[in-house]
Amino acid sequence: MSSLVSSIQVLARRTHFTIVQVRHLNLLEYQSKHLLRKNGVAVQDFCMVDVHGTNELDKFNVKEYVVKAQILAGGRGKGHFDNGFKGGVHITENKEEVPKLINQMLGYKLITKQTPKDGIEVKKIMIAESVNIKRETYLCILMDRQMNGPVIIASPAGGMDIEAVAEKTPHLLKKSTCRHL
Questions:
Q1: What PANTHER family does UniProt report for this protein, alphabetically (predicted)?
Q2: Count of the separate structural domains present in the chain
Q3: Which of 13, 43, 75, 127 would suit a FRET pair with 137, their CA atoms being 20 to 30 Å apart?
């Protein structure tokens, strides 16, 4: 028994334990919009369709529809699906076109610059009201492992392709730590 105890003591001195904190806070676009609306921020109207049969499209009538695949990755508009369909974001004024777009996206894998090589399966699609955009900005809160905490990144040059903004005009990106969040 004493040899077992001494072996455990030797192993304990040689073993270094690392505690890794894991956060599971990943929001799809529609979830973010729900939270914003719930807290008084104006967002465009939208409805959802998913692989489980949820379909709010019948009662959703707007002038112009934006059909957006919901995955946790950027570059959806420039992406392509494993069935050959191009683009995870489409705009149409024809409501009859919306189900056709949905059928090309739902259940298929969307491949973008930010997904694994074989893509991510689209299980939800947001159909939103198209709105005129006067100005787009970019704001995100992300976990920075180097800072060991949340970081806010903002830019007046928002909208699509924030990676290109970072590469071509890095001075337009502002980064701030937020240790007390």
A1: SUCCINATE--COA LIGASE [GDP-FORMING] SUBUNIT BETA, MITOCHONDRIAL, SUCCINYL-COA SYNTHETASE BETA CHAIN
A2: 2
A3: 127
Mapped onto helix, strand or coil, the DSSP state of residue 111 is strand
Contact 103, 69 (CB under 8 A): no
Distances (CA, A) of 124 to 34, 104, 106, 121: 15, 12, 7, 9
156 and 77 assigned to the same domain? no
Domain, as residue range, for 43? 29-129
Rounded to whole angstroms, what are the CA distances from 174 to 114, 140, 148, 154?
Answer: 22, 11, 18, 5
Q: How far apart are CA 82 and CA 117, in angstroms?
A: 11
Supply the CATH number for residue 94's domain: 3.30.1490.20
Tokens of 122: 């689209």
- In tens, the pLDDT along 124-152 reads 999 999 999 888 888 888 888 888 888 99
User: Is the pLDDT at 180 greater than 80, yes or no?
Assistant: no
**pTM of this prediction exceeds 0.90:** no
Q: How far is CA 94 from CA 62, 65, 69, 77, 110, in A?
A: 10, 8, 18, 19, 23
Cα–Cα separations (whole angstroms), residue 101 to 43, 47, 143: 23, 15, 34
